[in-house]
């Protein structure tokens, strides 16, 4: 009869201890958040000291910084440097959202640390990268953390947009020709003369490049004391601020926390009579026509609207480096061999503005097929629990109850009626009336905005849930995706972000962001 004897591990007093580090972060410097930071530090210090095989190296932390970008997080950067120096074996942190709220950054950091043989424990999600079978679960959880950050970012953007509407938003940096004086934009007479000369030269048919050379030859300094370029001249000619107007919302932050030019994706607000004008309307409009004429003569197009979406990938492959869209091209390898490739439109225009080179069409299709097969394999472990979690999150989300909303609206309307009566009967002063009325109207507007935001959020989340359920159903009925199918791609993929020529990120309609390597 077989006999099995368990042999316990031998405890060596000289055994090297596991060198453990802790990372903690809070996103604001408030007293409550800093107390949370101290609690995190004490919690992990206690855990590590309780394990005789562990040695606490250091508690790294960041106070009052956002998790969306890594370059502002000195504590995290120091932690990575120490890992590269071989000082740390293991990292403990509260959650993925505390470590990194950008899915790409999170996965890149995890890969980098695992390459250094340093593993991470995310306590809240119960994930240890040392025992993790694949990156898919981490990728999905990172995507959820990124959605949390996106929600916070949307609240900030809503507050900024409200200041746009109210006309209370302050311009961060006045353009050439203006200075800030006592909180107002005032004309800088010396610079204003240069601005008027620029417009006059444009109307005289002189090119922006020639105007820049003239100003440089005269040693005329720019706003920051640098040299003039043709792009600087065109920016001045196109700037509505010289009319005394301000267009708020020219740029916006996208879902990947990158700054982009607003080409109609978001609301804009034009405020007239914001400050004194340097250029009159007629001169400004004629200058726009002249600039457009020069651009047309050089075959320069502001938009790639002529590009037609004739292929499944058209318009949805985006460059992670510059944000440009990829265009379909036929590459020639030899006289008898050609293949389809996708190239960044900005790189094609100017290789110095974007270094991203082309990717092959067949590589993207193979990567999509690989991703779908991973989802099929991980359906029970990943997709089905995720559907359940998101479903419960949506329907358990605390929001503004409709009855409470209606009740408060009725109360405000009644208060407004009472105010009018008090004013007409002489019970209150007119100044008091307008002050109280403005307070009530502002509260009404905030309630309506909150209700609208909740309705938009609910619609987006329900659409994402529906897409996730469709994806889960598909993976439950399919054993393997053998070849690329265009209809399948269109059904589940919203966008492709090109990180490098070796890696792309599939952004699915359900909200998941999954990175794949291309062979």
Question: Count of DSSP helices?
Answer: 15
| Sheet with most strands | 5 strands, mixed
Class by alpha and beta content: alpha/beta
Could you tell me the strand content as a percent range? 15-25%
How many distinct domains? 3
Helix content: 40-55%
Total beta strand runs: 18
Q: State the low-pLDDT regions, or none.
A: 299-309
Lateral arrangement of strands in the main beta sheet? 2-1-3-4-5
Mean pLDDT: 80
Rg, Å, rounded: 29 Å
Structure description:
The protein has 519 residues and is of the alpha/beta class. It has three domains: 18-153, 3-Layer(aba) Sandwich (Rossmann fold); 174-297, Putative Large Serine Recombinase, Chain B, Domain 2 (Hect, E3 ligase catalytic domain fold); 369-517, no CATH class. The chain has helices at 31-49, 74-84, 96-99, 103-115, 136-166, 189-203, 208-217, 230-238, 281-297, 345-349, 361-377, 379-396, 402-424, 430-477, 486-492; strands at 18-25, 54-62, 90-93, 119-122, 127-128, 178-181, 184-187, 246-248, 251-253, 259-261, 269-271, 317-319, 326-334, 337-344, 359-360, 493-498, 503-508, 513-517. A hairpin with a 4-residue loop joins strand 4 and strand 5. The chain is globular and about 100 Å long. The two termini are 52 Å apart. Mean pLDDT is 80; it is low at 299-309.
How is the topology of this model organized?
Blueprint: E1 18-25, H1 31-49, E2 54-62, H2 74-84, E3 90-93, H3 96-99, H4 103-115, E4 119-122, E5 127-128, H5 136-166, E6 178-181, E7 184-187, H6 189-203, H7 208-217, H8 230-238, E8 246-248, E9 251-253, E10 259-261, E11 269-271, H9 281-297, E12 317-319, E13 326-334, E14 337-344, H10 345-349, E15 359-360, H11 361-377, H12 379-396, H13 402-424, H14 430-477, H15 486-492, E16 493-498, E17 503-508, E18 513-517
Parallel strand pairs: 1-2, 1-3, 3-4, 12-16
Antiparallel strand pairs: 4-5, 6-7, 8-11, 9-10, 13-14, 14-15, 16-17, 17-18
